[in-house]
Design brief:
392 residues
């Protein structure tokens, strides 16, 4: 057993590789979605339609809503690393972290300029405030708050309010109308109106969509869960941690099927039930599958052969911010009318191939860059500006 365990010194490598896996999954999903530009071939042959549907079902079942969740989990873990390092020096990282979130808004704006649906980084910057307030809480309080957020209390409140008063409805946030306007200016192909619309209307639509989708509370819960995992050193290779990850894998795998089935049954009810309880169970089944992916990855990473196979993900994960934003720029150039306008010619299978090739290209760029620098280019900027005035 000991021969197959990763050494203690490679603990961060597990996190880097897992982060790289999450960003890789995000780029594959985004390519299938044409970066939220749903224009596809209209007259593909039958065999290609079957292949496209299979590619879509498999990719979305594996990664959609889960890759983002892993990314959020590791955001909380990274906060633990940074705050812990400062605490050892007798310093409070909290207010420096607030400034770091402000900088993240800038990166979110840069990414959103090329991503019509808004950007998850802005959601992270907003919800990241929960980590600031929870930084000095006890482990028990952090875990309790994480579970509370993941239970989706607002959705349950809306459902109970509707049960008591059938006239109660969720507020109409006009997200559909906003995205229709986004789609219109994207199809027009004018670059500067596209950029301006994305960083204004697109970002607004994205945040409001996150409200409807339960993403605010789920993200907060995942941030705190990642923070808790950091405090408990759960990514450190030890017999006790391996047993815990094995239990997590079993419980999550067993829970996924009934949660998914219940979600499907709930979605056959009235609209308010779908929008509330349906959202809750959709978040829960995705969380269960996310934990299956994370636990499986961590356990497999204990094997040296698996480490070698996925070794490039470590480089990819170390430059996750750069890769995440770069893939949006590349996707916009490939699919959108102001660029190569390939969206109408790329079904799901071709789009997946483009995503894989983009990922492989980025991996080679990461290996080259990290051979000369300690961090990716945007990671260097974020680090330098985070510690502005300290000489770090």
């Amino acid at each position: 057993m000991e021969q197959h365990l990763i050494k203690k010194s490679t603990r961060i490598e597990v996190v880097d590789a897992l982060r790289g896996f999450a960003v890789m999954a995000i780029i594959l999903v985004h390519n299938l979605e044409h970066f939220i530009f749903p224009v596809y071939p209209a007259d593909s042959p039958g065999w290609l339609n079957v292949l496209d549907q299979g590619v879509f079902n498999v990719t979305f079942s594996l990664f959609a809503g889960k890759a983002y969740a892993i990314f959020a989990l590791l955001f909380g873990f990274t906060f633990y690393i940074q705050s812990s390092n400062q605490k050892k020096q007798g310093k409070d990282f909290g207010y420096r972290f607030l400034w770091r979130l402000v900088l993240l808004v800038g990166f979110a704006t840069l990414n959103a300029a090329f991503f019509p649906a808004g950007d998850v980084l802005l959601l992270f910057a907003v919800v990241g405030l929960v980590l600031f307030f929870a930084r000095n809480w006890s482990d028990r309080a952090v875990l309790f708050a994480s579970i509370l957020f993941l239970l989706q209390p607002v959705e349950w409140c809306h459902y109970i309010a509707h049960w008591i008063n059938p006239a109660h409805q969720l507020p109409d946030l006009k997200v559909g109308e906003m995205y229709a306007e986004v789609a219109a200016y994207t199809k027009a192909g004018d670059f500067w109106p596209f950029v301006w619309g994305n960083i204004t209307l697109g970002q607004k639509a994205s945040l409001l969509w996150a409200v409807n989708a339960g993403r605010f509370f789920q993200t907060a819960g995942l941030f705190l869960l990642g923070f808790y995992m950091g405090r408990k050193q759960l990514f450190l290779s030890s017999e006790s941690n391996l047993r815990l990850w094995t239990k997590t894998l079993i419980i999550s795998a067993v829970s996924f099927a009934p949660l998914y089935t219940l979600k499907d049954l709930i979605m056959k009810n009235d609209a308010i039930t779908q929008q509330t309880v349906g959202t809750v169970f959709d978040m829960w089944q995705k969380l269960a599958f996310t934990l299956v992916l994370v636990a499986s990855f961590v356990l497999l990473y204990q094997n040296e052969k698996f480490c070698r196979i996925v070794g490039n993900l470590r480089f990819y994960g170390r430059m996750s911010l750069t890769n995440y934003i770069a893939q949006s720029v590349m996707g916009a150039v490939i699919y959108f009318p102001f660029g190569l306008s390939l969206a109408p010619h790329c079904g799901y299978a071709v789009s997946l191939l483009i995503g894989v090739l983009t990922f492989l290209l980025q991996v080679q760029c990461c290996k080259w860059w990290l051979g000369k620098h300690k961090q990716g280019p945007l990671e260097q900027v974020w680090h330098k500006w985070t510690w502005l005035g300290t000489g770090k």
